[in-house]
């Protein structure tokens, strides 16, 4: 396992903060290897965050999640919107396009000016949820049915966020081997097709 001495020191500090969770040297090395791609300055802040928030020794996944949270604080474009934020944006999108049409998006002298159109969504996850439900369907829902529609949209939004997280982890795990793994999976598929 490869890791830098700085990463090892940071992980060692984490382990020292949780004496009840003391693991062996091999566990410490696994943590260091799995966290080595996080810049040391960010890793040190992440470990400080974990020590302040976690009662027990966090897993590698929890540490990585804490690092993502810190990055989202510094760079809001990395932040995943809560369902409440997404719902508010969808409500505003419906109201904006239904009552005002494409104001600001279509020139005033265009024949389509003022007609309803699809809004621009701030995140791919919101867009995926709305697209899955259908924006036209969303605009034509009766008020009495909105609680059910919001529950369905929330499920679609949560699924889109889970797919994003899974894709990020898969991309990290596969790294430079993604192309080689794709060929390997293709060859396995060929073997299955050849079986009687």
| Uncertain segments | 100-104
Q: Provide mean pLDDT, rounded.
A: 84
* Counted beta strands: 0
Strand-residue fraction? under 5%
Q: Largest sheet, described in full?
A: none
Order of helices and strands: HHHHHHHHH
Structure classification: mainly alpha
Describe the structure.
- The chain has 2 domains: 5-78, no CATH class; 83-169, no CATH class.
- With 196 residues, it is mainly α.
- α1 runs parallel beside α3 and α6 (124-133) packs across α8.
- The chain has 9 helices and no strands.
Considering the chains and any ligands shown, give keywords for the structure.
mainly alpha; single chain; 0% strand
Give the helices and strands, then pairings.
Blueprint: H1 5-17, H2 25-35, H3 40-53, H4 60-74, H5 83-100, H6 124-133, H7 135-139, H8 146-174, H9 178-194
Helix pairs in contact: 1-2, 1-3, 3-4, 6-8
What's the short version?
The protein is mainly alpha-helical. It has nine helices and no strands.
């Amino acid at each position: 396992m490869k890791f830098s001495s700085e990463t090892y020191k940071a992980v060692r500090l984490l382990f020292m903060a949780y004496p009840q969770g003391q693991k062996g040297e091999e566990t410490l090395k696994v943590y260091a290897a799995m966290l080595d791609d996080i810049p040391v300055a960010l890793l040190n802040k992440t470990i400080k965050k974990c020590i302040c928030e976690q009662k027990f020794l966090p897993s590698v996944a929890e540490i990585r999640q804490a690092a993502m949270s810190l990055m989202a604080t510094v760079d809001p474009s990395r932040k995943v919107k809560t369902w409440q934020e997404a719902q508010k944006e969808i409500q505003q999108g419906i109201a904006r396009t239904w009552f005002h049409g494409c104001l600001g998006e279509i020139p005033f002298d265009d024949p389509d000016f003022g007609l309803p159109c699809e809004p621009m969504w701030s995140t791919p996850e919101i867009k995926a949820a709305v697209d899955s439900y259908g924006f036209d369907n969303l605009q034509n829902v009766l008020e009495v049915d909105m609680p059910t529609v919001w529950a369905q949209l929330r499920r679609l939004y949560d699924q889109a966020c889970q797919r994003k997280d899974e894709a990020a982890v898969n991309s990290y795990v596969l790294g430079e081997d993604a192309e080689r793994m794709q060929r390997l999976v293709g060859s396995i598929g060929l073997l299955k097709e050849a079986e009687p």
